Amino acid sequence: MATSLVKDHGNNLISANLLTEFKSKVRKSLEKTLPPKSHDESWRKFPLNQFNLSEFNSDFASGELTDIRSNLDSTNWNEGNITKVTSLLDDLLSQSEGNYFALLGLFHAKEYYYFEVDEKETDILDWQFVSEETLSVSSVFLVRIKKNTSAKIKESYKTISKTENLHLLTSVSFYVLEESSELKLQISEDYDSDLYHFRSVFSSQERDSKLELSTVPLGGFRGKTFYYPRLSGTGSDAQILGLTALNKREFNDVEILVTHLADHTNSKLIYKTIVADKSHHIFTGNLHIPPNLKKVSAHQESHNLSMNKKARAEAIPKLEVFSEDVSCTHGATVGDIDEEQLFYLLSRGLNLNEARHLLVSAFYNEMIGKIAFSEEDEKNLSHLFQEKILAGGVD
Q1: What b/e string do you get for 289-308 counting C-beta neighbours within 10 Å, with b at 16 or more?
Q2: What is the C-alpha to C-alpha distance for residues 198 and 226, in angstroms, rounded to an integer?
């Protein structure tokens, strides 16, 4: 069962004043930050020469008329909560420094969404962002999981092209997990074929918290997504799972930076990609472990399946490990359908299309089984990927 997160009970005057001050800080930071260039490490493979931001600026909000939509009612907007939200925003701004599109999204978003989970939730909390904008739109989604609580959240994005002209989405999400909290988070993206999309997803974990983040991005014209999971508290644990499929001329660049900042922390990152036609996917898995940490475990792997000779998939692991008492492993595969497995299925009486479909579905269904929240969710995701794969060409 899913419960909508979109409620609006907040004190508008308080939240408007809070955001006016915050956006003033964002403006100053944005003015000091240059748009990315092709020689920047994180952007060297993104086709920036084909992207002109000025074409989308006219449809942005002013950066001033913003409010917080929240599940907190007016009685909860006391001094203590205002201080917590202010601290959260300042932390988000600090982590966004140097990230031009994150700052752009924070400044131009017409509404911020802020939610607190303060008791164990049995329902799936469902937040949906749907845009039919013709040029550009921004969103900011902020969540705090309170101490000793747990939740399941679906964060969904869907865009619809009205004119078939190129348009732009910039979005920022920030999840704060307090001590001993647990969050299962599923992020799904269903973008139209005319969209440039730039996303930044931040998370910060306190002591003994547990995060299971799964992401299913589909569609779009050109996209770049950053994930910044930060394990700040002793005993915190993060698992990040990703699954995507690209076809036609879609381009998607995903970069994940896992940062361990405390002892006895664990992270696991698994990402799977299927590319067809002339699509291009890039996955960069960054790991940072500073000096003097103890009992840290980190694992990452990326598996990429190519359906066509002209389709491209790249996997780039980057490990910065400055402590000795750690266990770090990584692996990556990029390849076509396994010929031996294909031959075996053909020898068992399947035709070529049936054999290919069986092998490809096994590749993505194994991950869907880990991502899905329910059997119904699993069936829907499997059907979605089946349609996406069938729409792409196969050599």
Answers
A1: beeebeebebbbbbbbbbbb
A2: 8
**What pLDDT digit, counting tens, does each position of 79-126 carry?**
777 888 899 999 999 999 999 999 999 999 988 899 999 877 668 889
Compute how many other C-beta atoms are within 10 angstroms of the C-beta atom of residue 175. 21
Whether pTM > 0.90 for this model: the answer is: yes
Q: What is the DSSP string of 236-288?
A: -EEEEEEEEEE-TT-EEEEEEEEEE-SSS-EEEEEEEEEE-TT-EEEEEEEEE
Say which residues have a Cβ less than 8 Å from residue 202's Cβ, sequence separation at least 6: 92, 95, 96, 172, 173, 174, 175, 228, 230
Residue 159 CA to residue 170 CA, distance in Å, equals 12
Q: The sheet that has 167-177: what strands, in order across it?
A: 67-70, 111-117, 136-145, 167-177, 195-205, 222-231, 251-260, 280-289, 312-321
Residue 80 C-beta-side C-alpha neighbours within 13 Å:
3
* Whole-number Å distance between alpha carbons of 145 and 161: 34
Distance CA 198, CA 209 (A): 28
pLDDT tens, residue by residue, 235-253? 999 999 999 999 999 999 9
What's phi and psi for 193, nearest 5 deg?
-80, 0
Name the token pair of 101.
């599109």
